[in-house]
Design brief:
- By secondary structure, this protein is an alpha/beta fold.
- It contains 6 helices and 12 strands.
- It has a 6-stranded mixed sheet. It has a 6-stranded mixed sheet with strand order 5-6-7-8-10-9, covered by helices on one side.
- Helix 1 packs parallel to helix 2.
- Bound molecules: fe (ii) ion (2 copies).
- The site of one fe (ii) ion has 6 residues, from loops.
């Protein structure tokens, strides 16, 4: 089975690169399942139902979120009728929506997707390790699921690496999001879990975290807000992680970063090219 994960979609240019490229990628690489982080897809802040549906239309099976999950207030309502939209699982009890779900892949496999948020330099949520472990144990690999993908939305690389090893051998893939810059540490961990500290963003890298450079720079220099943060709308790079899954074990055989378009040096999962 072939999985693709795409990092935080930022603004219109990020949505555009997903809509332009994902249908072709699904076909070219014969992808069975695609997860996209959409927490910044609506003008950099949150997600609307129309945008969520556009991402599904482009070929996402599931859309995950993060600290910007509910920046667009309508998400508090529509997340309840959209089971393919996940917010971090360690939000307080009673938060709208769900943090995990079991979904059918194109090849018929059952894929458990979990979204969790780190605690370091992030809002104070529940323990992400125990929250993710509960979901994994309730639907373990080759017992309740054929593959398990965890989007760990966190600032600190240490916390993300710890989550990778915590779930090694128990999850197919642990991929980090939130920092919007892809790390160069993608690999299969010793137990068979594909891991990357951060998938990067689908957005314009000629920017500060996908936002137009001017206002972030102004705030660092003067400490006085002069305007709003607006997404930078130059050509976007599609950034993500590809995973080749062993159907017998549900663990990763190979993994590789995918970067396409925009200003970053392109890279493609060569093991998928026949
Ligand atoms: Fe983000
Ligand atoms: Fe974030």
């Amino acid at each position: 089975m072939r999985l693709l994960f795409l990092g935080d979609v930022v603004g219109r240019t990020g949505r555009q690169v997903v809509v332009d490229q994902l249908p072709r990628l699904r076909q070219r690489y014969k992808l069975d399942f695609v997860v996209v982080n959409g927490e910044n897809s609506a003008g950099g802040f949150g997600i609307t139902e129309a945008i969520f549906e556009d991402l599904l239309g482009a070929g996402a099976d599931v859309v995950t979120l993060g600290n910007h999950a509910f920046d667009q207030k309508e998400a508090l309502v529509f997340i309840e009728r959209q089971p393919r939209l996940l917010r971090p699982v360690n939000y307080p009890a009673g938060t709208p929506g769900k943090g995990a779900g079991l979904f059918k892949a194109k090849n018929g496999a059952d894929v458990l997707v979990i979204n969790a948020m780190g605690l370091i330099f992030m809002p104070e949520l529940g323990d992400p390790f125990r929250a993710v472990e509960r979901e994994v144990e309730a639907c373990a690999l080759k017992k309740g699921s054929d593959a398990i993908l965890v989007d760990f939305h966190a600032e600190a690389t240490s916390e993300k690496q710890a989550m990778g090893y915590f779930l090694d051998r128990r999850a197919t893939c642990v991929v980090g999001t939130h920092t919007h810059s892809p790390t160069a540490d993608e690999r299969v961990l010793p137990g068979g879990t594909a891991y990357m500290s951060d998938a990067g963003m689908c957005g314009d890298y000629e920017s500060v975290l996908g936002m137009d450079k001017e206002e972030p720079l102004n705030r660092f220099l003067t400490k006085i807000p002069r305007g709003r943060f607006e997404p930078s709308n130059g050509p976007a790079t599609l950034s993500g992680l590809a995973v080749d899954v062993d159907d017998e074990t549900g663990l990763a055989r190979r993994t590789a970063a995918l970067r396409l378009g925009g200003v970053l040096t392109p890279t493609e999962p060569l093991f998928w090219v026949e």
